[in-house]
Amino acid sequence: MKSERKEPLGKRLEPWFFISPSLLLLLAVGLYPTIFVLYYSFQNWTMGMGPPVFAGLDNYVNALTSPEFLGSLQTAGLFLLITLPIELVLGMAIALALDQTRNRVLRRLVQVLLVVPIATTPSVVGMLVQLMFNTQLGIVNYFGRGFGLSQIDWLGSASAAFGMISATQIWEWTPFVALVLSASLATVPGEIEEVLTLDTESFWARFRYIKLPYMRPGIVASLVFQTIFTIKTFDMIYSIEKGGPGNATETVSLNIERVAFRGFDVGLASAESVLTLVVTILLAQAVVSFLYPARKGGEA
Amino acid sequence: MAEIVIDGVAKHFDSVEVLKHIDITIADGEFMVLLGPSGCGKTTLLRMIAGLETPSSGRILIGGTDVTALPPARRGVGMVFQNYALYPHMTVRENIALGLKVRGLSRAEIERRIEFAANLVQIREYLGRRPRALSGGQRQRVALARVIAREPAVSLMDEPLSNIDAQLRTIMRAELLRIHRAVGMTTIYVTHDQEEAMGLGDRITVMNFGHIEQIGTPDEVYGHPANAFVARFIGSPRMNLVRVEHHPGAAMVETPFLRAPVPDGVAASPKVLIGFRSEDARPGAAGEGETEVRGQVDVVEHLGAQIELHFRTEDGQEVVVRRPRGENQWREGERIVLAIPPRGVHFFDAGTGAALTVPVS
Amino acid sequence: MRERVLTTLHGFFLLLVAVLILFPFYWMIASSLKPEALIFRLPPAWLFRPDLAGYGKAVTENGIVPALVNSVVVTAGSVALGLIVGAPAAYALARYNFRGRAQIQFWYVTNWMLIPVVVLLPFYLLAADIGLINSPLALILIYQTFVVPLVVWLLVDQFAAVPVALEEAALLDGLSRFRVFTRIALPLTLPGIAVAAILAGIFAWNDLLYAFILTPSTGARTAPVVMMGFLGGYIIPWQTVMSCAVMICAPVVVGGIAIHKYIARGLTLGAVK
Questions:
Q1: DSSP state, A46?
Q2: Which residues of chain A neighbour C100 with C-beta distances below 8 Å?
Q3: pLDDT tens per residue, chain C (273 residues)?
Q4: d(CA A160, CA A151)
Q5: pTM higher than 0.90 for the full model?
Q6: Which residue of chain C is at minimal alpha-carbon distance from A241?
């Protein structure tokens, strides 16, 4: 029964006329290099040292047995596991406070200010962190002393440095979560909340039954995107200590950069890149499937 | 038990006065309609009874308790919102249950009440669905069930029928009455639709610009409007109001287009509005004691069973009457004379709009 | 009463958030105006005579001006190219329903999620092959991986909001689809295009990683790379570094504030309204 008239070819090609420039460009700068990485991951090649030689799975074996690479994956995972929940909780608290407050001036001010850490150049943030976290002379330890805390060697101690970059990441990106959740909260119709105020005064009930369900899409979006942003983080960490002290803050992005551009091992760096891509994709899928459980049948 | 007293309640937002000193007493179990054009303050008044807005002055008592300072949840009121305000992420059952759950009712009691409410408004088969899978009328029923299951002393309704189509509205109106009879909650119902108000209310409070124009039974506000605003707002087609001048003290109002005997007790006012409803007028010359209006037919509109005649008096005032189909072949440009018996004639002060007489009934 | 307490708590919390956001900026600006001797003085010198020497040194001795010019060229170039290819794509996604539309939208998202370091190495090798190292063009091209997705996703909604009837009227008047796009749709979406340009510009301006690798030689460096150069020395001239920092982040902070309403939407590629 398919007697539909097909649209003329010219008409069907119209959208491609508009779209293809951007597609070709992205294929050239995004996809093509990615395929190249795949190719190099099977080659043994150190930059500037003769032509590449086919190496089979050697690079992958080396990557997966390299304590440095595995350590950097672990560092990145820990970085994500520490910062993400804190960003979510703090961001939600800020969004709820913005939603509840009656002080319009303060609300406007904070709404505008939230953008500032996101927009600020990450390498500038890194430099500033170095200055503020200086052990003897930094303002952070000065305030810490005021609260009776001992001197912390932020830049010298592995765990303190890790805490420092985590705190910085949280400072930079909590506002993003807050803005996203704030936008979700703005979608709660006033009447829906009023219905429940006729039944209960409890803030918890309103949070649990109304605000949280409405925030759900925002929570999913901020978790997914923040996971990606955290794995992409490079500039801030690099500009503080290039992954140091030692490799205490060397996440996988920094590790690959070091192998490629300070060690010139193209093959190994490529294999590590491919593995990172795979892990990222799996991670993103896990996050999505965990947060969007398969819909039960029967629902319209 | 749940008599509602609104005692001198006023509300202003910044410098705008939305409600001016409102006094209403609503009896236990009464169905009270707040009627008025949009912006008259009726919804604000309803929301103050619910506790969603705070009065700038005055008190609200429910069942003898001053609730003015109580939070909404402790007033024992249920509310049906204009847009239903169903929780979109919950099933119908969960929608009804939530208010009961947060009040700490037992599971069995919640089930019993859901059962009762769902049967009463006939939504049992939708209990497992989400609101977006329901039609407008079904959502309306769910919103009602949610209030009924709460068993509040007072139920508040904010234009609950304004978002459903005309045919369904008539059915839901009858349903609302049936449910009200069955449950007996004191009900306050806000609407701008005078027909709905007449059909539903035990009494109607007619509001305009933040004050009360009249409180009365449907029969009272229709038959004895307290002022020109109520006269014009209630009834369809609207009451005709013809502006005339007369000599205070004279027994007859005499103009080239209108003759009316002045009933006893009409205060001396040189400018009056003489009002009559379409159904009280008949074509033909006035008899003894009757009022006569003359004019020239402007537009003849066929409505089906009736014909609507628009005509103008000599000084250009428009009068509209409906006549049965087939009574006469009305033509545009034709001269027309109408007679109105004394019980159908209303006198209002042209300046203040206040009724000058109580017509003989 | 309880409500009063809660409202006050919200106020304090939000005030704390504001202070936590602002303090580092105060510290950065203050440090850029403090002579080296005052920078590390504790307790901090809250009141001091502002000293502009840091800015002077940044300009005269450390070549921040040419670096800022490089940053402007790269940022403007990336945004321009991104808009030229991205705006028509957004228009097509908003106006046409065609096979493969969903896949293409997904492809833009994929690029936005790309981990920079993964494409950096092969792109570097390719750029080296064709002599693009130290050319602003290398950066302009690689920045498209994030500029194009941002532009496309922000503009799809903008174009979708243009009334179809308006465009149909123009089509009936005999304008071609392309003319309808340039004469009707583009002018009506200028504010949205400005937002997309600023947002994409912020990310292009801020980049350190790509610029660090792809523009290594002195004359070609962008501003963040030049600022990072201070780390190499034995003593870090903090006043000068902070002066550079202020100059680098001032435009993006101003741009970010200008478009603050659209940040959440932009960064989640329209997933959040």
A1: B
A2: none
A3: 566 777 788 889 999 999 999 999 999 999 999 988 888 887 887 888 888 888 998 888 878 999 999 999 999 999 999 999 999 999 999 998 888 888 888 788 888 888 899 889 999 999 998 999 999 999 999 999 999 999 998 999 899 999 999 888 988 888 888 999 999 999 999 999 999 999 999 999 999 999 999 999 888 999 999 999 888 777 889 999 999 999 999 999 999 999 999 888 888 877 776
A4: 11
A5: no
A6: C231
**Where do the DSSP E strands lie in chain B?**
4-13, 16-26, 31-35, 57-62, 65-66, 77-80, 154-158, 186-191, 203-208, 211-216, 240-245, 252-255, 258-261, 271-276, 282-283, 291-302, 306-312, 318-324, 335-340, 346-349
For B40, the token pair is 């008259």
> Most C CBs within 10 Å: which of A9, A12, A24, A26, as the mutation test of the C interface?
A26
Which chains does chain A touch, 3 or more C-beta pairs < 8 A?
A: B, C
CA distances from C210 to A114, A149, B316, C66, C68 (A): 26, 39, 82, 18, 16
B50 touching A (Cβ < 8 Å)? yes
Would you call B77 an interface residue with chain A, using a CB distance cutoff of 8 Å? Answer: yes
Contact between C242 and C230 (Cβ < 8 Å)? no
- Do C145 and A179 lie within an 8 Å CB cutoff? no
A-chain CB neighbours of B51 within 8 Å are 197-198
Q: Taking CB atoms and an 8 Å limit, are A37 and C22 in contact across chains?
A: no
- Other C-beta atoms closer than 10 Å to the C-beta of C246 total 20
Query: Which residue of A192, A193, A195 to mutate against B (max B Cβ within 10 Å)?
Result: A195
The residue assigned the tokens 């963040």 is C224
pLDDT exceeds cutoff 50 at A1: no
Decide if A9 touches C, using CB distance below 8 A: no
How far is the C-alpha of C253 from the C-alpha of A74, rounded, in Å? 33
CA distance C156 to chain A (A): 12
**How many whole angstroms separate alpha carbon A267 and alpha carbon C236?**
36
Chain C CB within 8 Å of residue A36 CB: yes
What is the DSSP-derived secondary structure letter of residue B37? Answer: -
**If you measure CA to CA, which chain C residue comes closest to A255?**
C117
Which helix H or strand E contains C198, and what residues bound it? helix C190-206
Q: List chain B residues with CB under 8 Å of A299.
A: 130
Burial degree of A5 (CB within 10 A; 0-12, 13-18, 19+): exposed
CB count within 10 Å of CB C43 equals 8
pLDDT (tens digit per residue) in A69-105: 999 999 999 999 999 999 999 999 999 999 988 888 9
Cβ-defined contact of C260 to A115 (cutoff 8 Å): yes
In DSSP terms, B68 is beta-bridged to none
Chains that touch B (3 or more CB pairs under 8 A): A
A187 in contact with B, Cβ within 8 Å:
no
ipTM value, please give it: 0.92
pLDDT tens digits along A226-247: 988 999 999 999 999 888 888 8
| Angstrom distance (rounded) from CA A295 to CA C270 | 23
